[in-house]
Design brief:
The structure is a homodimer of 236-residue chains. Chain A is an alpha+beta fold. The first copy, chain A, folds into two domains: 148 residues, Jelly Rolls; 82 residues, Orthogonal Bundle (Arc Repressor Mutant, subunit A). In chain A, 45% of the residues lie in helices and 24% in strands. Chain A is built from eleven helices and twelve strands. A five-stranded antiparallel β-sheet of chain A has the order 1-2-9-4-7. Chain A has a four-stranded antiparallel β-sheet with strand order 3-8-5-6, covered by helices on one side. In chain A, a hairpin with a 2-residue loop joins strand 11 and strand 12. In chain A, helix 3 runs antiparallel to helix 5, helix 5 packs across helix 6 and helix 7 packs across helix 10. The first copy, chain A, is elongated and about 60 Å long. Chains A and B meet through strand 5, strand 6, helix 4 and helix 6 of A and strand 5, strand 6, helix 4 and helix 6 of B. Chain A binds a DNA duplex (30 and 30 nucleotides) through helix 9.
Chain lengths: 236, 236
DNA sequence: GCGGAAACTTGATTCAGATCAACAAAACGG
DNA sequence: CCGTTTTGTTGATCTGAATCAAGTTTCCGC
């Protein structure tokens, strides 16, 4: 966990759609109090119930947002680059509803919540971007919830594989980006069940060897998975 | 389903926190294109996938937000007065992710999405209010998801009863506000299971007669339900 | 007030997925 | 390279909740 020289990141940050439109003066105001940090995997960044002192931005890697109650834990969603998380808590100056931990080695920017709120009021373009981002976050959670409530674990896996296949250049074969126990958690199932689910997808042309996946006939798998832009497209 | 004379509603709408702070001119601009309508129960107001032409505001009654996939349907959340819904779709000018139908007789205001986006850019106070509302919507969905993923159906019912008891003036006895099949759907369970769940709560002092609920010992039920402000408080 | 429809209850059965237990296979550190 | 730890697989069992199948009660229109 090392603290970076921050100035080097200015251009990268500035390019994020959240910051690209705003006035220079306001951008610098945000950057003055901000910093960037590299975290190893599995580090807990925030804990639910705490007050929201910083807006977090995932620059690289990925972050698991999860919640606990009565000794149980569940993964709520995953934050990918480049996106903010706990934006809603920052805006409302309310306690975090979720905890966050890095899934892999990740680069995170932190901006004091107070500054975000101040600049929001001062810079209309920033306000517009914040709102757009918040709306996107909202829609992501809704999609995740639909995925979970409307699909069986097998269907979730099938759609996850289709998504991964697309992301990795639409080749027939590709490597899983995470260890299986993590994928299981992301899909809301146990590792045991994931193992069985892979076998259950064999009739649809899915074969797995270690972390390498092969999809024999994409259309065949799609017929089973029934991907839906209102659940699976991260863009819409 | 009757169309109301709209001018009579101006003062009511104006008092909503979403509109209370904004400039008069901008408010009138929004109102010009808007209208208010009374809907009977179970009317479908919007359908997922459609483009978001109107921002909806629940003035009275309640609205069920639900989604479908592959012939299945699930209730996602409930919108109560006074709150907006499909705000995120309006902001991003993206298709609805959820459908909406009235649960009971409801009074709904509709404002053209185009106007909302225009006034958002023109009135900073309105922008602030929109963002605050959107953040609240987001947090509501997160809480709903936590409730669903972390609790058993029995625990959800117990917490629902505690919530209702509080809302109805903290008396020992109170009436359920909806028919049971609707409550079952809201809690993500079947009517059959709800029926059994009520019986299963008897050891914790819950008795039910028709739609009347009695809670013998609040502390007893709380020990089982373990209410959590990060799930059950609508305010935080 | 009667008859039919809808809502609710109760019991039996089924099912998806979790848990438990044992083992196999990688990954890793010295 | 070997021994340990972690990760993954497989099978057996358990459990919460859905479904199916009767019933019963309540509601409502005529």
């Amino acid at each position: 966990m090392r603290l970076d020289l921050f100035e080097a990141d200015y251009p990268d940050i500035r390019e994020l759609h959240l910051f690209s439109e705003m006035a220079d003066a306001q951008f610098m105001k945000l950057m003055r109090g901000a910093y960037v940090q590299n975290f190893p995997p599995r580090i807990e960044l925030i804990t639910e119930g705490d007050s929201s002192d910083f807006l977090h931005i995932v620059l690289s890697g990925s972050v698991d947002l999860f919640s606990t109650w009565n000794g149980r834990e569940t993964s709520m969603s995953t934050a990918w680059p480049v996106s903010t998380f706990i934006l809603a808590a920052t805006i409302r100056d309310a306690p975090y509803l979720m905890s966050a931990r890095t899934l892999e080695k990740s680069r995170i920017a932190l901006i004091p919540s107070r500054d975000v709120r101040a600049v929001f009021d001062a810079d209309q373009r920033f306000a517009r971007a914040i709102v757009s981002d918040l709306a996107q976050c909202y829609r992501s959670v809704v999609k995740a919830q639909k995925n979970l409530k409307l699909r069986s674990s097998l269907e979730r896996l099938a759609n996850y594989l289709l998504q991964q296949q697309k992301q990795s250049g639409s080749a027939k074969g590709f490597d899983l980006r995470f260890e299986k126990r993590r994928i299981a958690s992301m899909l809301g199932m146990t590792p045991e069940n994931l193992s069985r689910a892979f076998k259950a997808l064999r009739p649809y042309g899915v074969s797995i060897d270690g972390s390498h996946v092969r999809i024999a006939d994409l259309e065949d798998l799609k017929r089973f998975a029934k991907p839906d832009p209102l659940i699976d497209d991260s863009a819409t």
